[in-house]
Structure prediction request, 1122 residues.
Amino acid sequence: MSAGHDAPPYVPVFQGETKARLEALAERYPTRQALLLPALWMVQEAHGWVPPEGIAEIAEQLGLTPATVRGVVSFYTMYHTHPVGRHFIQVCTTSPCNMCGAEDVVRALLEHSGCGEVGATSPDGRFTVIEVECLGACAFVTPLLIDDDFIESVTPESVPALLARYS
Amino acid sequence: MGYPHPIHPKETPVLSTYFGDPDARSYQGWVARGGYQALRQTLGMTPEAIVDEVKASGLRGRGGAGFPTGLKWSFMPKDGTRPHYLCCNADESEPGTFKDREIMRWTPHALIEGCAIASLAIRAETCVIFIRGEYTEPYRIMEDAVAEAYAEGVVGANAMGSGKRIEILLHRGAGAYICGEETALMNAVEGKRGNPRIKPPFPAVAGLFGLPTTINNVETLAAVPHIITRGAAWYAGLSLSNPKSTGTKLISVCGHVQRPGTYEITMGLPMQELIFDLCGGMKPGRTLKAVIPGGSSVPIMTPDEVAACATDYEGIAAQGSLLGSGGMIVMDDTTDMVYQIMRLARFYAHESCAQCTNCREGTAWTTKILERILRGEGKPSDLDLLLDLADNMTGKTICVLSDSCATPVVSGIAKFRGEFEAYLSGARTPIAVGA
Amino acid sequence: MSAELISLTIDGMTVAVPKGTTLIEAAKQAGVLVPHYCYHPSLPSPAVCRMCLVEVEKLPKLVPSCVTPAAEGQVVHVHSPAARKAREGVLEFLLINHPLDCPICDQAGECELQDFVFQEGRAGTRYADEAKRWNPVEDFGSDILYVANRCILCTRCVRFMDDVAETPVLNISERGDRAYVGIDEGERLDHEWSGNVVDLCPVGSLISKDFLHKARAWDLDKTASICTGCTQGCNVTLDLRDEVVVRIRPRPNLDVNRHFICDTGRADYRWMNRGDRVEAPLVVRDDRLVATDWDEALERAAETLAANAGPVVVLAGGRASSESIGWVMQLLRGRQVSAAMKVPLGEEVPLAGIPNLALRRERAANLHGARLLGMDADWSDALAAASGAAVVVILDATMDDAEVEALRGSGAVIHLATVLDPRLPALAAVLPVTTVAEEQGVYVNRDGRAQRYLPAKTPQGMARPAWWVAAQIWQRADDSRQAPDTASEAFAALAPFAGMTHRDLGFTGRVVPTMAEAAS
Prediction:
């Protein structure tokens, strides 16, 4: 959250094509609340995170209170309730990866991304690195997610070249 | 993505036959490999006949609990007064488990076909496949495959021209291990916090949206088309050991083996062969120290127990652990058991949904005690305290996440007590963790 | 409808309960309280606190008694070693992050965590070396503070807002031991019924700003009463510290208000503590009101009534008891009387999840009692008649200026008063009467339920119940008359309540037979 400028005004997500996508989904579920996880993904896709205005917009779209939406948002760790870097890196550090060197990969990522510490965003706004629990690719140590790209078998040595692919 | 390994002679590829074959991902490719014959066949069968066939195969749930699949299907109401749902549990999140990922990545149509057949068996018109949010690649592949299946008329309002409706919905999770618990998964689909529900009512009575629901694991459903086309007797006959464990099982092996990966074995294969032949054993100069055989929530096994163990439900149970999801974590002699058990406890503390007191507070407290032991700040009474907390966390909550945290602690202290004591006595160099 | 009965044994006691009864409720019938936090009889049960686990013979695991239905022949052990160990474990888990700030916590003394830890918890802590979870105190709005550190996440408050108020402004945020009760930014807990979350909270996590640090629970005297705010007749408890009412809380009555009251009723107590009360009977002497004794004042009132022949107007406030209304009407029997109760009107605010429970439009506690007792004129009609009346009797009604003006022209005014009103014209006597907090009496609610309230404090000065005042005047007119000595006697003498006594109204009241017929 080191952005040193005023945030641009919130642009509603659910209009035009996105609204149509939401309503198409609505026909497939018996309740509107069932659209909550998909709707949160749509807001995060559009804004890079789920801002309070996004919570309010979803609440209105689905007929829920913002409190209900917020309770759900905070349950699922993949929704960002704060702005994050342009590229969001999630590194698995649970036991199977941990045993095989995941913590070294985290150190390399923090160093080469400029983030410095887990959870922080690099000064250039490019990266945020967090440790996450099991990514479900335990044979491919160390797996990580950069945005929606699932990347396997990352080593401390492969980190610089990997990061170079994300501007 | 790289992977998979070449098939080992001791493997029995059924579900994994086409792992690594990108052509098997497409509808045409799948049909060319015999796909959708089973669905066509079952569209002409009664639900009872499908259920009977799966019952006869002995197929048991591959998600962890091992409940007989045909029996589970038979619990669904037969009166047809309310809509039914099928849920496919693709929220594979148990540390050490990554087999369903390979099914979705390489053979998405196998899963769609299995879902369609199961939907027919339980009289459901809608199947929701809930895929964990982190599985971005499997999700995209499944998304393409479902779109293809609709376009080809395999599923939809008139599945394969049968007049029967089979809808397949993909629902993406967003980062919550507990959604792998069946009722938590249903809450997630309903747009709620992924809190497990009290049972009863069981899903067959009141599941997704309060309607009768069956929930099956990816691997379970992907096995169904094979059972239909090749017959229950063939599937049951694959077992090497006890007739209660039939067919093949995908075992995802990770940790300190030379060739980690997902292996398909017949039930009953000696665990020693799995680890040392299929996976190539330990790295040079290292020896086996411990195995967690069924995902991180089952008791830890020692090398002696591994040596005596047949890899199936009964064989592993005989050695005091569980086959679980078939996610096998292998640890060599360099492993710090105290540290790894702390990591597992931290995992469960992070993932606790917060509902039940014992789990919410117990997982976090257990983690803190393990951390202080590692920091060299433990007290001699800490091991008894950990065991007593584990007792207070076992069998007392809505779901088994709390038990899952306690299990590695209890078996770790029982089997590797010396390592804990080395930290307590100062014989081991403390590690800066936590606090 | 006769429910099928099930017989089971709980801690050695055999009880029979209707089929479908949960073990926790069955245990109550066996006289056994199963400790619990998340369970509440007026909320859906999530079975999350895991405190009410009990042992049932032949079942492999302990079961949550709040959601487990009783079954025929079950043998249940609430206090077996396994059940006690489980609860001791839960209590320990709840305490590890709970601050030891009982000395400054309003809940202390009425805290279910304190009580059950004292009863079943460990004597010492095993969590001495770690930091406790810390979150700042949140202002949830209107009257409510959330002290997150004390929260045991039982979710009663969240469920009340979700399922009973049907206004889900609270949530559980985050997961694991980071979880807390959240409210959305920009939302406030200002629902008309939201104060109930303070009562529902088993610990001192949700607390009332109004009650903050006013009293320790053990210093409070508690008296069963009835809310005077509207015609719903919610059962309440008046909590007093040293004769000062400091809090009103709901008192359970499943037929009227279950476990809830609205915030308007909850806040409506300061007038009970007014210092500017009429302390002594006052009569007019030399054009001045002067204090006197009851004898002279009653005599003066009797004379005033006798001397002013002609129609009488009675103007009553909404808090007048049935006894008082009944005896004022008895006093005036035989004369032409126009009697009305003043009924302020407000907006009706229902509690969505509970049938037939609302803050009612008619903001007068005893409107239906008044009608039953013949006080059935329109307020405006009675007021219009006042200027031509021989006597106007005001029974503790608060009048605005226009209403006071309307009394001009009446022969005489007798004021049964809690507070002096110097604007009143033609005053003959001011007779100090008690408030609902100082007397016992009966109100009749909108469903015809006669409900009793009890005296919570000593009457102010020489104040007496209005029924006593009216009956004493009545007795003076005829030597053969015998005024009642007690409120119970005063009640028993009233015709509409024939066959009913104070005693058999109990603590939850009874529907007046004639009104039950009218309703059916």
Notes: The mean pLDDT of chain A is 94. The radius of gyration of chain A is 18 Å.
